[in-house]
C-alpha cells in the first residue's frame, strides 16, 4: 500500500513540476509550500543564521523559478535537484561571507518552561555545534542532508554528486567523528 501512495506522490509532484514549467503559478506555489521547510532547515543548519537563511532560501526558490524549465526527469528527483540549487546557493553565500563555520542562532533551540532543561538543551546544542566544526565540509553536508533535511541516501548522493557508497562512508565517518568529539567534550565536563 505505501508504494502506491508514494507512486501517487511522485506522479503528483511530476504533474506539478510540468505545470510549473508551463508557467502555472499555482503549481509553483504548491511546490514551494511542499519544499520550503526542508530547504530552509538545510540552509539554516549550513549557514547558522535564521534571518540570513530566510534570504538564502528565498534566493533558492527564485533560482528554481528561473530555471525550472531546464529540469528534466532523468534519474534525479525534483527534490534532489532543488537541494542541489540550495547547496550551490549556500556555497555562494559562504564564499561571499568568507566564513566556514558560523554559530547557530540561539533562537533555533526550543524555548522550554523549565529553566534547567532549557540550559541543558542549550549546552547540548553548543556541544553539538562545536563537534560539527571538527567535521570536514563534506561530512557536515551529508549530516545536514540526511538528518536535518531527512533525505534518503540516494537523494543525498544525487545532491552531492557522489555515489551512494561514498555517501554512506561519509555518513559513517561523520557519525564516528561526532561521537568521538562529543565523548571528549563529555569527559572534559566531568
What order do the helices and strands come in, and which of them pair?
Elements: H1 2-21, H2 25-47, H3 50-67, H4 78-97, H5 115-132, H6 137-148, H7 153-160, H8 164-189
Helix pairs in contact: 1-2, 2-3, 2-4, 2-6, 3-4, 4-7, 5-8, 6-8, 7-8
Class derived from helix and strand content? mainly alpha
Write the H/E string, N to C.
HHHHHHHH
CATH superfamily of the largest domain: RNA polymerase sigma factor, region 2, helix turn helix motif
Largest sheet geometry? none
Count of distinct structural domains: 2
Compute the number of helices. 8
Helicity range of the residues? over 70%
State the end-to-end CA separation: 50 Å
What best-fitting shape do the alpha-carbon axes yield?
Answer: globular
